Amino acid sequence: MSELKEILQESVTRLFGDMVTRDVLIDAENGTWPEALWAALEENGLTNPLSIEELGGVGATWDETFVILKAAGQSAAPVPLAETIIATWLAGKAGLELPGGPMTLAENSSCVDLTVRQDGGTWRLSGTLAAVPWGSAAEHVVLLVEKDGVPCVAMTRTSDATVSGNRNMAREPRDTLTFDDAPVEIGEAASSTGTTDPIRLYGALVRSVQMAGAIERTVAEAVQYAQDRTQFGQPISKFQSIQHQLAHLAAKSAQTTIAAASACRAADRGDPQFEIATAKIIAGETAKTATTIAHQVHGAIGFTYEHALHFTTRRLWSWRPEFGPESQWAEELGRRVAARGADAFWADLTQRQSS
User: Fold this and answer.
1) What percent of the chain has pLDDT over 90?
2) β-bridge mates for residue 174, sequence order
3) HEC profile for 222-288?
4) How many Cα atoms sit within 13 Å of 101 on the Cβ side?
5) Handedness of CA 199, 200, 205, 211 (dihedral sign)
6) If pLDDT is split at 50, 70 and 90, which confidence band does 192 have?
7) Is the distance from CB of 204 to CB of 324 less than 8 angstroms?
8) Which candidate, 70, 20, 40, places its Cα nearest to that of 208?
């Protein structure tokens, strides 16, 4: 582990442990922005880790940023940290000036009737962005627009949009933003990031890491409850069927974390499509397993709002389809493998395992 990774690990573990309390989570679900939490994240340089120092970042790698995203998922941090990390990174790579404050992203699939036109020296944006994560809380949104037939990274203020509020199952904002001739900054072509659709790709990466953290939290809560809950005079963790379930869940959790970490290292190498697809598939499949087993172990109490389990499981259910569900990524992975041909299959697998 690098020195920076150790520093980040210690910093985020302490910060989220101290500041993401049950009261903060409940207040966020009721619409209160966690100002103190966000201020602490910005002060510690955790909202823009990937950019170089000249752009306000710390020059971290994706492998180092992994610990921030995983800790955010473990704590169910009710802020658009993952979205801001990608948005600042993409905007900086595209040559756009970073504005600071919370930011978010819009997938291509969520864009309806999106158009841009040039008005003198200003580009203007019209159209609708649906289900934007934290759209009502973020100050800027990063998206892809077509400029001269080429997909480019763009950024615009959310205050220039008409906002229609909505929330997902975890009570996180997923808002619709409608723009009508709003000013928009357009940067370089999206292909400079290594893919023509970097928002979906790297969105899937951060969700995979967040889900890995949330699944680890789910395992810990299930194990703790099994040790605390007694039945027939002994903790239910002594029953073999419970032990088998928890062992299976722990193994799937480890697999998810390893896949997400591998995808982050691949992102540092610059060709992460295979690993990100794999990580999102595994995270989605494990989310189903984790929520099922955790709620079975907890019994009826796990479904009550008074218990903490739902803060994690509702996020897993909500994050699973975002930036592509596992079924879509499995199809893409299958097409990629088929296009490479049977002769390349074994070599591709073994080369990636050794990298």
Assistant:
1) 79
2) 133
3) HHHHHHHCEECCEEHHHCHHHHHHHHHHHHHHHHHHHHHHHHHHHHHHCCCHHHHHHHHHHHHHHHH
4) 15
5) positive
6) low
7) yes
8) 70
For the segment 125-149, the average pLDDT, to the nearest whole number, is 95
Which helix (H) or strand (E) covers residue 326, if one does?
helix 326-340
CA angle 214/11/26 to nearest 5° reads 45
Please state the φ and ψ torsions of residue 306, each to the nearest 5 degrees. -70, -25
pLDDT tens sequence across 153-169 = 999 999 999 999 999 99
* DSSP symbols for 2-46: -HHHHHHHHHHHHHHHHH--HHHHHHHHTT---HHHHHHHHHTT-
Q: What is the CATH number of domain 3-193?
A: 2.40.110.10
pTM of the model: 0.94
Show me where the domains of the chain are located: 3-193, 198-354
- In terms of Cα–Cα distance, which of 272, 315, 268 is closest to 291? 315
**CB-facing half-sphere around the CA of 132: CA atoms within 13 A:** 31
Percent helix, strand and coil across the chain, each rounded to 5? 60, 20, 25
Beta bridge pairs of residue 146: 151
Q: CATH says 198-354 is which class? A: mainly alpha
Q: How far apart are CA 237 and CA 260, in angstroms?
A: 29
Q: Crossing angle of helices 273-298/326-340, nearest 10°? A: 150
